UniProtKB/TrEMBL annotation:
The chain crosses the membrane at residues 12-30, 50-71, 140-160, 172-194. This is SNARE associated Golgi protein-like protein. InterPro entries: DedA_domain, VTT_dom. Keywords: Cell membrane, Membrane, Transmembrane, Transmembrane helix. It holds the Pfam family VTT_dom.
Amino acid sequence: MLDWITNVISRMGYLGITLLMVLENFFPPVPEEIVMPLAGFTVQRGELNFLFVVLAGTTGTVLGAIIWYHVGKLVGEKRLRKWVDKHGKWIGLSGEDIDKSKRWFAKYGGIVVFFGRFIPGIRTYISIPAGLEGMALLPFVLYSSAGTFLWIGILTYAGYVLGQNYQLVEKFLSSASTVFFVLGFVCFGIWVMYRRHKQKQKAKR
């Protein structure tokens, strides 16, 4: 996979980086933690321009995010409510929770989309609730682009600084992703138990 990514960047340059970052949104074996640091290493060798590399990576990532945004819109609130009414009780979800999430996302959606771009395991799929909750496309693209530009810039610069050791970026972020996943899983479990306990108390009343 690494050889293939290297060949794409070497042969196609900025366009190859853009295409790889679009693909990264849908095909996890093509990680941005390898693509962008490798592109940064290419910048160090004088083959590409740093700013254009970051712009190419940002463009590809945002294009993929827009596709996931429309997936959220396609699912729609009606289908989600139907699923929640049928299965939501098992994880403590209700139609009232959907209403709350809509209000919350309407108020803080831009911040969530921006900072979500920095969190491993979340950055790709944060686009779905944005589309689901009806966040306007233009603000979504602006917040996504701003967060993505910073994150892609960090990855590219790390590869530029590390040079041939650019793969250390992926190793570090893989460990960080594991920590984030475990913490997220634990928090989700606690939240589910809290919701079910709250629903039982409400039912007793």
